[in-house]
Each structure stands twice: as structure tokens, then as C-alpha cells.
Write a structure and sequence with these properties.
The chain is of the alpha/beta class. It is built from four helices and four strands. The protein has a four-stranded mixed β-sheet with strand order 1-2-4-3. Helix 1 links the parallel strand 1 and strand 2. The protein starts with a strand and ends in a 19-residue tail after the last helix.
Length: 144
């Protein structure tokens, strides 16, 4: 599966630096994965904004393009109050939480749980998470 990411962030967050540091490894990790014959690519946009901006989650599944897309939304003020390792954990937890929106789409034979586990294991391997998937909370209040 191909992976692509973009950002809508304040530059002082260093989100782009953190993510771009792992993106080549993430792309390699996902290159041999297939979670559905209807999905060839996953696209994300990491958003870090203030609550007052009231950012709305976007998601999409294009059967024609075989593409899944979703937003990752992180609360700027809380995120900026964290130390670097906790910021990375916040990013990973927000990613796993926000990818839940993909459950509503029904690509053929979609193995969502396997995809989510692959991401959780990847984040654990790069030491952004220290938990197993079953320990990841359904809500991520520390990052919202």
C-alpha cells in the first residue's frame, strides 16, 4: 500500500520534522501490505490547531482511485505543553484514534483491525508508543 501525508500546522510544533523523519520507514513498512483489494493508497493530513478553530474531520474513500483519506487532528495548546517524547506519543495516539473514521467505509474484504494493528506496532517499534493496541484508549483526551 502506498502512503502519502501532508500538514496543516503551526511551524513551531515540529510535527513536520518528526513525521518526515519516520515517513520513509513508514512507507517501506506499508509497501508490502494489502488491507483490501479496493485500497492501494492511504493519504493523511496532520492538522494541529487551536480548539477555537473548530476544525472538522475529513475522510474519504474513492473506489475509482482505490484511495482512503483521513485527517489527524491534534490540539495545538496541549501538544505544545508536552515534552518531545510525549508529543510523539500524542501524534501516534491521535493517528490511531482518528483512523477509526475509516471503519465507516466498506472496501471489499477490508481488514481495518489488521491495518490499525500494523500502525500501532510501527509506532511501538519506533518508540513513539509504549503500549499494545489493546491498551490504546478509544479517546485521546490528552491530545484533544
Amino acid at each position: 500500500m502506498k502512503y502519502w501525508n501532508s500538514f496543516d500546522i503551526f511551524f513551531d510544533t515540529k510535527l513536520d520534522i518528526y513525521w518526515e523523519g519516520i515517513q520513509p520507514d513508514l512507507e517501506l513498512h506499508l509497501a508490502s501490505k494489502e488491507y483490501s483489494p479496493d485500497v492501494e493508497a492511504l493519504n493523511t493530513i496532520i492538522n494541529c490547531s487551536r480548539r477555537s478553530q473548530n476544525f472538522k474531520h475529513r475522510s474519504r474513500f474513492s473506489r475509482k482511485e482505490k484511495n482512503l483519506f483521513f485527517d489527524i487532528i491534534i490540539d495545538y495548546d496541549h501538544y505544545m505543553s508536552l515534552k518531545e517524547q510525549d508529543q510523539k506519543k500524542c501524534i501516534a495516539l491521535s493517528f490511531l484514534k482518528d483512523m477509526e473514521i475509516l471503519r465507516k467505509y466498506k472496501p471489499k474484504d477490508f481488514r481495518f483491525e489488521e491495518m490499525k494493528l500494523d500502525f500501532a506496532l510501527f509506532f511501538k517499534r519506533i518508540q513513539w508508543l509504549d503500549t499494545q493496541l489493546d491498551e490504546v484508549p478509544d479517546t485521546v483526551p490528552a491530545c484533544r
